[in-house]
Write a structure and sequence with these properties.
This protein has 8 helices and 13 strands. The chain is of the alpha+beta class. The protein starts with 5 loop residues before the first helix and ends in a 7-residue tail after the last helix. The site of uracil has 8 residues, from α6.
Length: 243
């Protein structure tokens, strides 16, 4: 693998072409641990442990990106959005310049916890049906919730294009028209279609948790995002800190 020179490091973080990054470094725009380093070919030791700043703006070297967004309504998860802006427009340019994609999808009108990454293995593991990652939703319903509906969601709901009934792992009532629904699968419009098949209608949907990672724990308001650090990735796997 090519040596991680400063110009390559800067380019890998989404700051522009190698030529452009080289010019930035020559111009003295890059500081490492508080000192200007103007040699683009310099190879920093322990690159992940250094504190960098570019034109006075601090950043960390992250070989791969793991991000969480509190998705607002009226944004699309598709990389080629058609009717609403894409979720990536909520991120700064250096992140958008990297090959980041949403991990699974939320509908344009669904809000809540959305993960994004440029790590293909991570995206695959999170979305693989074999991994059984539980996803927690709060669904507001148009009609009052009945005990029959909850029993049906737990027993399994047959949807048109599915070979077998889909079951909610949990379905509990939080209010007269509010449910917490936990699913392991991520089928197209799954919550909405399951509720419709049970004779109700999903009026609003928010994803509040994935694995052990909660939106509340991340403290993100609608439209805000954060980097996922090692402890968050452990929560995602359902592990307590230090495990
Ligand atoms: N189920 C849905 O119906 N929509 C979503 O966005 C997520 C799960």
């Amino acid at each position: 693998m090519a040596k991680l020179t400063l110009e390559r490091l800067l380019q890998s973080q989404g700051y522009g072409t190698r030529k452009y990054c080289r010019a930035l470094i020559f111009d003295g725009a890059l500081q490492i641990d508080g000192e200007v380093v103007d040699d683009p070919g310099f190879i920093p030791a322990d690159p992940e442990k250094r504190a960098y700043s570019l034109d006075g703006v601090a950043f960390r070297y992250r070989p791969q990106l793991y991000l969480a967004l509190h998705k607002p309504p009226n944004y699309e998860c598709s990389r080629k959005p058609s009717h609403h802006p894409g979720v990536l427009t909520l991120f700064p340019d250096p992140i958008r310049a990297r090959d980041v994609q949403p991990v699974g999808r939320l509908d344009h009108d669904t809000t809540g916890l959305l993960l994004l990454s440029d790590d293909g293995a991570f995206i695959h593991a999170q979305t693989s049906p074999r991994r059984h990652v539980p996803k927690y939703y709060h669904a507001s319903t148009a009609e009052d919730v009945s005990q029959d509906l909850i029993a049906h969601m737990l027993a399994g709901v047959q949807l048109h294009d599915e070979p077998a009934p889909l079951k909610a792992l949990e379905c509990s009532q939080l209010g007269p028209r509010l449910l917490q629904i936990v699913l392991e699968q991520g089928k197209y419009h799954q919550v909405k279609r399951m509720l419709a098949a049970c004779g109700n209608h999903c009026a609003a949907l928010t994803r509040v948790q994935i694995g052990g990672l909660t939106l509340q724990g991340l403290g993100l308001q609608e439209g805000q995002w954060c980097y996922l650090e090692a402890e968050h990735l452990a929560q995602l796997r359902g592990q307590a800190e230090g495990e």
